[in-house]
Amino acid sequence: MIYEGDFLRDAISNLLAAGYRVFAPVKVGDFHIFREISSANEADFNYILPRNSAKVALFPQNEVLIEYGEWIEKIPIDKKKIAVVGIRACDAKAIKLLDKHFLEGFVDPYYKARREELLTIAIACDNASINCFCQSFGINPRKPEADVVVSNIDGKVFVSANSEAGKAFVREFKLRGESEEESMIRERFENEKIEMRKIDVDVEKLKKSFDSPYWKEVATNCKSCGLCTYLCPTCFCFDIYDEGERRGVRIRAWDSCQFPLHTLESSSHNPRSEKWQRLRNRFYDKFYYTLRKGDYYCVGCGRCIDYCPAGIDIVNVISGVR
Amino acid sequence: MNELEKIKEALRSSSAEKIVAFVRKENEPREVLAILSPNEIDRISFSPLSFNNPAKLLMQLNGKVAVVAKGCDAMAIKQLIKEGKLKRENLFIVGISCKGVADYRKLSKLVKLNEVTSVELEGDELVIKLKNGEKRVAFAEVVDENCVYCEHPTPVIYDVLIGEPREGKRDFSDVEEFEKLSREERWDYWISQFERCIRCHACRSVCPLCYCEECMVDPSNLAISPMSTAEDKASYPRLLGKTVNAKDNAIYHILRVLHHAGRCAGCGECERACPMELPLRKLERKLEKVVVETFGYDLNEDIPFLSKLDIVGD
Fold first, then answer.
1. The whole model's pTM is what?
2. B57 touches chain A (CB under 8 A)
């Protein structure tokens, strides 16, 4: 269907009016950050990818799990409806991967409460940044898997709703049907590949290369910071700690497998005390360990490549395993 | 012989077993740091996109090491020698008289990086060779702002110097300009910057002077042993939690910078590493100015700042 006007901005206005918490890309300087907004004017959609991902809406960097005094006083599960607007196909796929982690098997009630009320509105890509490689994972960047998808093609705004929630949401908008020619244009758009990098994942080789000196070599220049994991739309590790002695809060905060304290055991033993072990863990976690959840935990957004201060490149590292 | 050939020749003349130098990253025009053996000298590359600081890598290595160092890199190495983290006699420093490095983010806005085949400086122009053709821009347009205020473009310590020595100057005009703002304006400015921080600690991790095995922001674990009780462990000091908000982030950044008083080499790695583009050098430069003006210390002195304070203090 086709919308005459600025669909994303109008959608945000509707969502805010309906009491949603809305997360959208905001322009800061000359780049974009996903954050909660309070008016449609704050959002800006002129980007390939924001620096951070929509993960911040579902899995916030800090979250109070329990407020305590002498005993648990409050379990603040936020049931407010949430919308993420302007995500790309990679980040949309990442939400599905976070779902597997937080909702299958042990169900995380905090995540679940947010997820049940989540509406995703995605924008189709029409080009790639230099380190995009989502197509390697079967993701179609021109056809994100989200409740509502907006594609800007030839100056027209195509809107499609792919779920019940999405259909209910777009019903409030004056959308007109596509002409036969317009449908053809949209389909052609959706089926055309975008030129981008490719990653060559060989799980069998990974299995055999765990003890390879390759990992030390790859890690030479790694600085052991948490940048790659914090920008990653699928990384889900967290730490829980208490703040306050007699009264206080139990907080869940992002943690990174790249920090040495992440695996420090209370016996003082650290199974991943060396940075190359931590770096190796990240790659195995993306492409091997998480296969038990049924998928690679990489969506090819390329953020970890773009911003790694040491120039470590997941495409080259994985394609070059030996 | 061009700059790169001179670097390679200098490295071949050294007896070092390991070489810390720049190699070209795949798929992008920038260089990244690598630890090489002498038979890999041909892999070395050097350009205005060799912006990383090799000093931190040196601390990973034992034995004789050769290193390619720009002005700020050499200054970082000098600080580490002063602090006993590196031994001068173990280093063979190929110093580069540096004309400044290009700002990768500025460059990425001018050209698509994966179409760049090479980048070199020709007079005042940066020549960007592309797969199809070339682009020339005034270097002043893409130079890393940090380099504009560089006081020591010529390495303060080297074994071989590549290029003619260049004069730098001490210039705090940018800091002075910022100081004109009112206290409230400066606070608002910093809070609006710090609220973006995601505390990935990339700034700390890339900083050659941030070499503490345990950082003040991590919960203390040095004293943990198998004998430590749970209560002991739970009550170890924790200066800062993992809560990420403008004020906690401000504490992290201000404390981190304070630990660099009279030490920061000014390489700008913190700012380059920051995925949220926090203006971290502004904090460091303010501190530099205080160290210079209030304490009369020059970074290039052979004695560490804090030791000097002990000597001259009452």
1. 0.94
2. yes
